């Protein structure tokens, strides 16, 4: 007691000298700033590590080692090959002969056999036959073939496979690398931008070079359409009712609590719900974007409802009073005044909800989208919804689970594409917000 | 003691526009308005004065059923406008509010153009058959709001871009655009500077020609300047209701006298 009164009674120093208390307070503030700065630096560090590792591992997926061979198939060769029992073998022989002659033209003499070509390029005969059967008018004219090199040869160019690490196997022999080097010197083998990765379809487990994410992008697109068309109107209608019209009683309180809880339910729970309800009970097709979209709608709804309610709440009550004061009905007040002001927030919430749904994998595991090999584009809009397909995150998961190192690289590449989509969506959200935000 | 109420604004005895009898208002368990009975006359400015929380704004909001929007608010008793009970089950509050306009404490223009601010009410009530008629209504309302000359060249500019006093006059113009019969004003000048206040007060005096105006104010000078009748509220009771000149010069109740001389409040 005496101490306190002594202290307060102590004579004050001048303003130019900092007293002990102020010093202490300033030090505390400095410390707090340092903590904050440290936290930000740590966060940024991890972000940079993440970005660098994604880009380093994923960028190789966008290039592909190809062998470019130009040759002319005469009508006689075509007829002769088609008349044989092993048709693709015949085409392969024609291809090998063409490759051999091109090497000789450039003055290179490397010995190789059909088996080596198979190890380097896979089954070439089938690809060539398919092409000429589809385009019979190209018979007799020079055609340039770009054939994807096998995963290990691709890896050799990307530094994933080295001469020291190669163990002779049915996939690659050390001697094959001599052929590869020779082809490289001749300019026949080269690295090209892999458009097929962006636009192409998935392949089986044996052909990482030809795998693309394009079909999965379409699958994701149809899923997002379902999510948008269902969750936006339902979510907005529910929020408007709850926020503007519903009486405040125990029942609406219960609904509110449940919506908040739903937002925190793990996504795999929605997946098993979708499996039980949509597939087993309603017999909707498995692996279909429609079912994926329905499941993701359930997941996105709470996000949209919460963000919509928040933006409705943010509209100042004075605007509602003004509208009611001039004799607008409740609904006119909401639709003429409140909703337009809340629209930017609602749009942002919706896009962020969609972005979240776009990257969601767990529920897709359970409805069969993971593991489905999306080999072809859907034929039309309807089949886009109901035919089995994959989705971007499901495709990435499928690739990551495959053994070949080439697929591992594709998985990282797929992540880059997925992140690009997410960044674009978030950017759109920011732009919409900036554009439509009104001040009052 | 204050600016002496001008004798020229002597109350004119006219018809009763609003008759309230034994009005009780509860916010959940809180009894906010107790036994208020008041007869508000047509073509007169009636001021409600009283300390904060005395219920004057609450009572004002009963007159156009604005309290309906508050879930926990209950109103008992009878309020009649032109002899019709406004709390009758058949009365649609939306129709009532077109007849009883309201101006709020804080200027609250819609974040739309000046034109749309005024045109909104007439539009939703179907008062104009075509654009020309609507233009006319907008001009008339803005003239009555004494803001026409300032905004006639920029009707498409946002209403929120005006100054505070202009915004409030815009809100008054918006309220009169729907041709109400009663105009309720809830502390319309509390957010305005003295010049804007003077403009709005002048406007209120003009509006008296056509409407029954009820104004809630914290400023006793303002009540004395603009009103002909004054009601003094205290703790939910209507303490005294009389001609403004009488309230300010010769109040009957001791509480009224204490309040206007600044001893309670």
From TrEMBL, chain A:
Membrane-spanning segments: 34-55, 213-242, 262-282, 288-306, 338-359, 411-432
Occurrences of domain ABC transmembrane type-1 (ranges): 217-429
InterPro entries tied to this protein: DUF3333, MetI-like, MetI-like_sf, Phosphate_PstA
Main subcellular location of this protein, as a coarse class: membrane
Subcellular location: Cell inner membrane; Cell membrane
Gene Ontology CC annotations of this record: plasma membrane
Pfam families named in the record: BPD_transp_1, DUF3333
Protein name: Phosphate transport system permease protein PstA
Organism this protein belongs to: Marivita hallyeonensis
TrEMBL record, chain B:
Coiled-coil ranges per UniProt: none
Keyword Nucleotide-binding annotated: yes
Superkingdom in the source lineage: Bacteria
Annotated GO biological process: phosphate ion transmembrane transport
Places the protein is found: Cell inner membrane
Domain ABC transporter: from-to ranges: 18-260
Residue ranges of the TM segments: none
Keyword field contains RNA-binding: no
Topology term for the membrane: Peripheral membrane protein
A GO MF term: ATP hydrolysis activity
Annotated GO CC locations: plasma membrane
Alphabetic keyword roster: ATP-binding, Cell membrane, Membrane, Nucleotide-binding, Phosphate transport, Translocase, Transport
PROSITE patterns the record matches: ABC_TRANSPORTER_1, ABC_TRANSPORTER_2
Function comment: Part of the ABC transporter complex PstSACB involved in phosphate import. Responsible for energy coupling to the transport system.
Name of the protein described by the UniProt record: Phosphate ABC transporter ATP-binding protein, PhoT family
Taxonomic source organism: Marivita hallyeonensis
